[in-house]
C-alpha cells in the first residue's frame, strides 16, 4: 500500500510505502530529494535495514504533509544516498513504534514518527493510527488511513484491543500474542507482529507445516506458495486467529491469493494459492508470525502507541469489516 506525501515548501510529492513494521520515514529511493526553504540537514548518517531492503544516507528536518490538515513539522526524514529493494517507490512512511528508530540516525537516540509529530503539534488527539485495507478485487484494492482515532465508518464489528506482547523482539513492534486454529484443531500459538508493509501471513516453520499438512497444500516452486486443486479448496476450513478472547476468522476465500493474480505471479490460472507462507525458522524465539496485508484486508486494524516511548503501554485493535466474509478472491 502506497500513499502520496508532500515534502518541503514548495512541496514535492513522493510515493511512499505504508509500513507499521518500521518507524523511519525516508525518501530518495526513486525520485530524488529536492531541498527547499524548510529543509535543514541534522545528521550525515542514517541507515535502516528491512526484511527485503536497505537504505542509508543523511537526515533532514522538513515539512511532511499527508493532507492539508495533517502537516508534520518539524519532522526528521531520511534521504537515501543508497538504497535497494524499493524499485518503483520513493521510500517508506514509517508508522511503527518510535523505539524502532533507536540507533538509526546518528546524534539522535530516537526519532519521532509522523504520528508522534502530528500529536505533539496538536493536529491529532492521540498517537493512534487506523488502517482500512481492501482486497484487490474489492474497491480496487484502495484503502484509507485515519490519524488520531479509529474511523468507525470503516468497520462493522466490535473493535477489540490487545496489549502489545512482552515477548522480545515482537515487543518492540506492534506485536501481539495469539493462537492459530485450523478448523477445530489448534496448529500453533505465540507472539508476532502486525505489519501493513508485509504482503502475506508468515508463520514459524512448525506452525506453517501444521497448516500445510492440514490443508493438503503442496509447495509450488514456481510461485513460492502452497497450491491447492479445486477439490482441496472446497474442503478448506476456516483459519481462526484467537486474540485476547476475540476470534478473527479467515474464510476459505480469504486464505487464497486473488486468482486474478495467478498468472502474474507465475502460476496456473486455474489453481488456488494459499496466502500463508513460511518464516523460515521454528517458533519459540519471540517472533512466531507476521500478519500482513492478506489478513489486514479482511479486518480493520488500529495501532495505539499510548504515552510511553518504550512501547510498554501500546496496544493493537481489530474489528470486522464488510470485507471480512466477502468472496472477492
TrEMBL record:
Residues 1-319 form the Peptidase A1 domain. CDD domains: pepsin_like. Signal peptide: none annotated. GO terms for molecular function: aspartic-type endopeptidase activity. It comes from the Eukaryota. Gene3D superfamilies: Acid Proteases (2.40.70.10). Keywords: Aspartyl protease, Hydrolase, Protease. GO terms for biological process: proteolysis. InterPro entries: Aspartic_peptidase_A1, Aspartic_peptidase_AS, Pepsin-like_dom, PEPTIDASE_A1, Peptidase_aspartic_dom_sf. Belongs to the peptidase A1 family. This is Acid protease. It comes from Exidia glandulosa HHB12029. The lineage of its organism: Eukaryota, Fungi, Dikarya, Basidiomycota, Agaricomycotina.
Amino acid at each position: 500500500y502506497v500513499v502520496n506525501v508532500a515534502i518541503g515548501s514548495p512541496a514535492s510529492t513522493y510515493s511512499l510505502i505504508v509500513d507499521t513494521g518500521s518507524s523511519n520515514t525516508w525518501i530518495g529511493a526513486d525520485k530524488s530529494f529536492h531541498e527547499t526553504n524548510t529543509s535543514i540537514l541534522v545528521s550525515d548518517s542514517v541507515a535502516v535495514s528491512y526484511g527485503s531492503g536497505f537504505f542509508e544516507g543523511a537526515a533532514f528536518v522538513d515539512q511532511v504533509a499527508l493532507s492539508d490538515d495533517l502537516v508534520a513539522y518539524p519532522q526528521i526524514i531520511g534521504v537515501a544516498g543508497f538504497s535497494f529493494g524499493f524499485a518503483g517507490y520513493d521510500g517508506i512512511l514509517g508508522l511503527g513504534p518510535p523505539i524502532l528508530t533507536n540507533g538509526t540516525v546518528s546524534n539522535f537516540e530516537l526519532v519521532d514518527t509522523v504520528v508522534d509529530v502530528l500529536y505533539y503539534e496538536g493536529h491529532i488527539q492521540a498517537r493512534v493510527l487506523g488502517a482500512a485495507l481492501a482486497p484487490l478485487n474489492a474497491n480496487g484494492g484502495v484503502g484509507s488511513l485515519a490519524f488520531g482515532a479509529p474511523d468507525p465508518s470503516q468497520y462493522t464489528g466490535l473493535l477489540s484491543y490487545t496489549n502489545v506482547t512482552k515477548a522480545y523482539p515482537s515487543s518492540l513492534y506492534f506485536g501481539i500474542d495469539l493462537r492459530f486454529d485450523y478448523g477445530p484443531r489448534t496448529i500453533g500459538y505465540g507472539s508476532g507482529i502486525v505489519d501493513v508493509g508485509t504482503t502475506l501471513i508468515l508463520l514459524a516453520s512448525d506452525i506453517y507445516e501444521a497448516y500445510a499438512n492440514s490443508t493438503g497444500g503442496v509447495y509450488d516452486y514456481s510461485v513460492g506458495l502452497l497450491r491447492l486443486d479445486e477439490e482441496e479448496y472446497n474442503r478448506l476450513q476456516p483459519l481462526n486467529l484467537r486474540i485476547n478472547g476475540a476470534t478473527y476468522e479467515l474464510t476459505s476465500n480469504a486464505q487464497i491469493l486473488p486468482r486474478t493474480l495467478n498468472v502474474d505471479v507465475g502460476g496456473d490460472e486455474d489453481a488456488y494459492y494459499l496466502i500463508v507462507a513460511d518464516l523460515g525458522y521454528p517458533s519459540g524465539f519471540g517472533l512466531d508470525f507476521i500478519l500482513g496485508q492478506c489478513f489486514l484486508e479482511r479486518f480493520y486494524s488500529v495501532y495505539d502507541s499510548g504515552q510511553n516511548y518504550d512501547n510498554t503501554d501500546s496496544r493493537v485493535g481489530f474489528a470486522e469489516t464488510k470485507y471480512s466474509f466477502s468472496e472477492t478472491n
